[in-house]
Amino acid sequence: MHPVKFPPFSVLAGITALLAARAVEAVPPQHPRATAAPSKDLSLLADQPNFPFDPSTSAKCTWWVDNDGWISCTEMLSEWGISLQDFRSWNPSITAQCGNYVVGRSYCVEAPITSTSTSSTSTTRSTSTSTTKSTSTSPTNGIQTPQPTQPYMVGDCDQFYLVKAGDTCATIGAAYGIGTTRLISWQPSIGTSCQSLWANAYVCVHTIGFQPPTFNSCSSLATDKTWGGNKDAALSAAAQWCNTGGGGSGAYGLAAAKTGCYNAPLGVNKFEFQISNNFGSPANLSVAKCKELAQYLVNTCERGGSGSQEGWRFW
User: Fold this and answer.
1) Residue 1: inside a domain
2) Does residue 253 belong to any structural domain of this protein?
3) Residue 270: exposed, middle, or buried by beta-carbon count in 10 A (0-12, 13-18, 19+)?
4) What predicted TM-score, i.e. pTM, was given to this entire model?
């Protein structure tokens, strides 16, 4: 027999929405961070240096910062997520502690980086702006990668999204069924709070072979009855609830939840299914995904329980 209601899920913390809600701040012209104002005026970024520069600077530099004294070397690197190692490789005149960052000089903040693991050379973008030419690259996995991309994107991406002004990690994640932390893990330069998401650049929204993991917490309460002879009926009820017109699938508002309740054929119990949106943004649940989530606990938990998959919670 089935319990009247699955027990509440009490393990997962609600930090996703907090991270997801952070909108992106302003960056160089072609790649503005979508909605918030910049914490520093870094408008002195350009594809050509306006100040003198050290002759040892990378000859392949594609973007420059003009040091007018407004921001320190370490602050500039932190603001754009550029590693000191990369910055020094492009600007050999910079010392180990980001020293010799001279006011009135221009410095390279984007250039090709030679991989140490292979003999080929690949381009890794820093968090400064690049050209807006519409191009693509073919990495070793054979998948065409559109350009420009969010810096430090993973190399096994097979689906991309062009970020627009006003987008957040939450809105992008909700649209593609991935959590904010997942999106950040595929392009760490976004920042742990999604503060450095670029507009007018591509982000990875799916990697080769990725399947979103599903977690559950099965009930162990004796008061929650086993499925018994009602299991097949419970699976059928879950499918009925998720089908078009059943109420379980479709649009979910911010933090919205939907519930379906059906009579069990054996005994006096009922089947109750609930799914909630924890993406931090409105989301849409397909019929197939709804069935997957609603039937998951019937198939994996003897007495029901609760579970999660990316930004979806269900019990």
Assistant:
1) no
2) yes
3) middle
4) 0.61
Q: What is the mean pLDDT of the chain?
A: 80
Task: Let me know if residue 22 belongs to a domain.
Answer: no
Does residue 152 sit within a domain? no
| Count of C-beta atoms within a 10 Å radius of residue 24 | 25
Number of domains in the chain: 2
pLDDT by residue (tens digit) across 171-208? 999 999 999 999 999 998 898 889 889 999 999 999 99
- Tens-place pLDDT, residues 68-109: 888 899 988 887 778 899 999 999 999 999 999 999 899 998
Alpha carbon of residue 105 to chain centroid? 36
C-alpha triplet 203, 208, 209: angle, nearest 5°:
135
**Distances from the Cα of 19 to the Cα of 22, 32, 40, 87, 174, angstroms:** 6, 19, 22, 28, 13
Domain C-terminal end among 95, 128, 161: 128
183: tokens are: 């999106």
Whichever domain contains 278, its CATH number is: 3.30.430
Most distant CA atoms of the chain, gap in Å: 84
CA distances to 151, 174, 188, 252, 274 from 183, rounded to whole Å, are 13, 10, 8, 20, 26
Can you tell me whether residue 300 is helix, strand or coil? helix
- Nearest CA to 170 out of 297, 18, 4 is that of 18
Q: At CA 33, angle to CA 28 and CA 39, rounded to 5? A: 80
Across 142-146, 191-195, 209-213, which has the greatest mean pLDDT?
209-213
At residue 215's C-alpha, the angle toward residues 278 and 20, to 5°, is: 25
What span, in angstroms and rounded, lies between the C-alpha atoms of 172 and 14?
Answer: 18
Q: In this predicted model, which residue has the larger pLDDT, 108 or 140?
A: 108
Alpha-carbon span 153 to 123, nearest angstrom: 11
Domain end point (choices 111, 128, 145): 128
Tokens of 131: 């050209």
Residue type at position 75: E
Query: Can you give the residue range of the structural domain that contains 269?
Result: 215-314
